[in-house]
Amino acid sequence: MGAAFLITLREGLEAALIVAIVLAYLRQLGRADQFGWVALGALAGVAVSLAAGAGIYVAIGELEGRAEAMTEGIIALVAVAVLTWMIFWMRRQARTIGAELRGQVDRALATGAVLGLASLVFIGVLREGLETALFLMAVVFDASAASTAIGAFGGLAVAVALGYAIYQGGRQINLRRFFQITGGLIIVVAAGLFGRGVHELQEVGAFDTAHSPVWSVESNPVVGHGHFADFMKGLFGWSPDPSIEQLLVWALYLTAACWFFYLDGRLPFRLQLPPLPWARRTAAVEVEADGTG
């Protein structure tokens, strides 16, 4: 539930942000008569996304055994790749997305294309909707469909409320800080999906692996199974019996993604190494040659 909430909150806000910016700009221009086209594009994007997600869910639900495990592993790894691209792309585009959308609205109004605004919003909402469907498909394997649906609709509700506040001109919403915080949480979710994907591929023998788990607490009523274990599995990628490969990819991805997301690959401190012995000797020789020693 937790992972589904975070994913739909993040993706839903990005879609709501597109709609809110377009509507607010049209209101500023005095073109409220175009609101209907924006609503049409948004609803069409949501409808197509729901249809695509339902179709994928039904198709995967019919798989069994090795094919099911292989598909779950591939979907998890693809979701990790798309999630990683999405959080870094949004961090880079957050400052200019408003100006770009307003420019596209100006061009649509200037050309008089009645479907221009609808297609602009449709493409934006559809992109976020398809990404959401992919991510939810990856996390639903670690939780029940009911809990995933509850978390997803909860995240969407909050995203819609934030989008409405942005449309109304809510200056109290710090989008930069919001995307920083949710970006870090999504990185944690992606790390768990990475480990999940590796685990599924190990189960079908896709690559050689160490078969002995690092630890095994499946019989533990708290962290081995039950609601808390399901929550930890869905949000953090917790496994009661992880392999060494599963732990390594989780730790390496989490470290690298946070390093580049928050520090741009820079060290958080200045690294000062002592001069090497031969470097000191070379410097002394240069001083004597200059006659200053």
Show the helix and strand layout.
Elements: H1 2-29, H2 35-61, H3 65-93, H4 97-111, H5 116-139, H6 145-167, H7 175-203, H8 227-236, H9 244-263, H10 277-290
Helix pairs in contact: 1-2, 1-4, 1-5, 1-6, 1-7, 2-5, 3-5, 3-7, 7-8, 7-9
> Any idea what the shape is?
globular
Question: How many whole angstroms does the radius of gyration measure?
Answer: 25 Å
Uncertain regions spanning at least 5 consecutive residues: none
- Quote the beta fraction: under 5%
Number of domains: 1
Order of helices and strands: HHHHHHHHHH
Question: What's the end-to-end separation, in Å?
Answer: 72 Å
Mean pLDDT: 83
> Total helix count?
10
Biggest sheet architecture: none
Computed structural class: mainly alpha
Strand count: 0
Helix proportion of residues, in percent? Answer: over 70%
General description of the model:
It is globular, with a radius of gyration of 25 Å. The model has no long low-confidence stretch (mean pLDDT 83). It is 75% helix and 0% strand. It contains ten helices and no strands. It starts with a helix and ends with a helix. It has one domain (2-263).
In short:
The chain is 75% helix and 0% strand. With 293 residues, it is mainly alpha-helical.
